[in-house]
Specification:
Elements: E1 2-4, E2 10-12, E3 19-21, E4 24-27, E5 38-47, H1 50-59, H2 62-70, H3 80-94, E6 107-118, E7 126-132, E8 138-142
Antiparallel strand pairs: 1-2, 3-4, 4-6, 5-6, 6-7, 7-8
Amino acid sequence: MTSAASSGTPITRAARPRSWLPCRLQHYSFTGWSWSGWCASKAGSKKVSAEESDAYFHSRPLDSRIGAWASPQSQVIASRSVLVTNAARYGAQFLLNPPRPPHWGGYRLVPQQWEFWQGRKSRLHDRLRYLADDAGAWRRERLAP
């Protein structure tokens, strides 16, 4: 996924979708994934409801739920001990039932376009683009490499 910081600087992260809905991707955490060739999409995003975020959060392992509280996501920290200390503090505070942190939730991506590229030795690569119309139907186009 690529977005932009308030300064306009692009920010790109790999995200593994946590659920697939018709014509939508939903993700809650970031992990790496690999693809043979490449895939690009053009999509809008929208925060999922608090109820959906709660349901997913409570399905996660206890350590992951405590970790969501313990980690000041993407902030510079002095050492790993900051995380360990925070995890111990929140573990003692919440015991076996940590609530979803107010800063934690999911986003739903609603693609309007997908493009897939698969390389071939001949340079006659396969390149397909799928475009969604306003009704959610998809049209496939073959593009020249």
